[in-house]
Amino acid sequence: MNAPFWEALGNLSVWGQVLFFLVLFVAFAFEFINGFHDTANAVTTVIYTKTLKPTPAVFFSGFMNFLGVLIGGTTVAFSIVNLLPVNLLIEGSSSRAIVMVMSLLLAGVIWNLGTWWMGLPVSSSHTLIGSILGVGLANSLMTNGDLQGVNWNKAMDVGKALLLSPLIGFLAAGMLLLGMKVFLKNPNLYHPPGEGDNPPSWIRGVLIATCGGVSMAHGSNDGQKGMGLVLLALIGFLPAYYAMDLRHPELAREVHDASVAMKSELVKGNVDNPQLIAQLDEIEKSLEGKSSLQDVPTDQRWQVRQSIYRLGIELDKAKLPSDMAKDLATHRKVLKRSIEYIPFWVILGTALALGIGTTIGYKRIVVTIAEKIGKTHLTYAQGAAAETVAALTIGLADFFHAPVSTTHVLSSGIAGTMWANKSGVQMSTIRKILLAWVLTLPMAILLGGLFFYLGVTFSGG
Q1: Which of 98, 294, 319, 429 lies 20 to 30 angstroms, CA to CA, from 330?
Q2: Secondary structure of residue 162 in the 3-state scheme
Q3: Predicted TM-score (pTM) of this structure
């Protein structure tokens, strides 16, 4: 946090500053809860196969979550932020922006805590995305009487990733276990650990490595969702300051030149699209002669950001020829870089919240995953198969910038290994978990929308 940040914060009223820090606290609290809500997904296998004792297991997982946030990038964060057309709220009134952020945070915290208390391994990703959708829909209904308050294309992409990942976890973990049975004949791998048993050294190494991999992948993927939440708060309260990346003065010239080059390419390619040309003209005019983005007047920065954001949407809609889209890609990256950034203190704060949260409160969901999904105790091979698949699936999701659920992938992976091992599953537990999974999205939408409606009604926003 530098001097311009504190200057921007000083423009808020005292009550506004109190609300700002309250919202930041709740945002980091959501990520803290996410930590202990989802810890079980990484540590269950190493604890129940006696690879590690509980305390070192959760501290190891916490450190790897922390590390995952720091090195995981920010692209998934903006897939969360861009679920909402944030300009709809900013252009409406500042009080709506505040209510928006508080509503989606409260909805996420309440559902996560409730399901954790009942020991149900539900998805924090589903919860967060549902609450964002609920706020967007409620705002759109109240403002325009329609359902356009959500970026539906982005919501569909996110929904596909969240729906497919449990199926991948179940099938891939089951098939991996069957493959292990073909090539690894040691019978000790396929029966529950007995009293005093310790896993073979090589499987112990695999289980520790996969626990670390799942934890790091979780930190990277879910940590970015936490960053997205904090960024929504920052944009809601300080839109002029967080509209563009003010840290790099050279971006003003680079964005201006990129917009000029893009317009030239479109004209040369005889693309007749007034919307595209209008957005590019707006960007070029706003940055003409500016040596830094800080030179853009504070009351115009949000408009410039929105012109860049809308340009991206119009380019996606335009379905340009592949060779032209490829030529424009480099310029698009420059424009995107000017509005999609996350301050390091947000990354560090999210990493600490998630890492520390990981070290507590894990027992409720660990017991459900390890003891109540299958009819027998988890075996070494099942733990290794489920964790390996979870680490790879979440890692690939990060690579493709898709927000997936660690909970769904790991829980379904363990169920898949129980099926493949013919261990049987406890259908009463499966039904509860499936019911929680099915209810999470609609309940989060309902809670987010309800809190937003009540907040706007009582605040007069």
Answers
A1: 294
A2: helix
A3: 0.77
